[in-house]
Amino acid sequence: ASFTLQWHLTNACEFHCSHCYDRSERSILGLDRAHTILRDFFDFCRSRRVRGHICLTGGDPLLYPGFPDVYRSIARAGASISILGNPAPKEKLAEIAEIQAPIYYQLSLEGLPEHNDRIRGAGHFAKVVEALGILSELGVRAHVMLTLTRDNLDQVIPLGERLYGLTDRFTFNRHSQVGEGTALAPPSRDEYVEFMHRYLVAARSNP
After folding, report:
1. Among 54, 154, 175, which Cα is nearest to 108's?
2. β-bridge mates for residue 170, sequence order
3. What is the Cα–Cα distance from 179 to 159, expressed in whole angstroms?
4. β-bridge partners, 81
5. Alpha carbon distance 99, 67 (integer Å)
6. Over the stretch 7-23, which tens digit does the pLDDT of each residue have?
7. How many CB atoms lie within 10 A of CB 45?
8. Alpha helices (H) in 49-88, listed in sequence order
9. What backbone phi and psi angles, to 5 degrees, belong to 74?
10. pTM (2 decimals)?
11. Model pLDDT for residues 71-118, shown as the tens digit of each residue
12. Which of 81, 88, 105 shows the shortest CA–CA distance to 169?
C-alpha cells in the first residue's frame, strides 16, 4: 500500500494561464520547514506501514529555490516521486533523473498549437513537444494533462492523435470554476456526454 502527498511547493510560475485557480502571492517555504514536513510525512508512513509517494507540483515546483535539496531528501528516504511541472532545459531534467528518475513527469497542453499558445504563451506547444523528447531520451515516463473547457472540447481527440507515440499518457481534468477559471465556461451536460462517447471510441485505437 502507498500514501501520496501532492505537495504544492510554490505558487511561482512563468505562465499566467486563463484557467489558473490560484495566482495568489505566497511566502517562500523555508528549507527547515520543508524538511520538517518531510519528517512528519515519513513518520506517518512508517506508523501506518505504507510506502510514501510524493507528487511535487506548484506553480512550477522547479522554481522553488530549494528544489534540488528537497528532491534529494525524498529520494534518500526511498519514496517514489512524480512531478507536475513545466518544460525545463535538458540539463535540469537530466539532473533530476540522475538523482532519481520520477515515476512520471507531467506537462500540460490545452489543445492544438494555436489554442494552447494563446493560453500558455507563444511557443509553449513546441517547448512541450521538445521536453517530451528529452524525457524519452532520459527514460522518464511522460504524461500530458489538459484542462477541459467548452473552448477546447473539440481539440482533445485531435490532440491525442498528435501526441500518439510522444507521451506515455494523455488525459484531461475538468477545470475548476474558481480563481481566474470563473471566466471560462464548462461544456454543457449534453456536450460533455457526447464528447465522452467520442473519447471512449477514440481510446480503443489510441491508448
Report:
1. 175
2. 144
3. 26
4. 54
5. 12
6. 999 988 676 666 665 66
7. 20
8. 67-76
9. -65, -45
10. 0.91
11. 999 999 999 999 999 999 999 999 999 999 999 999 999 999 999 999
12. 105
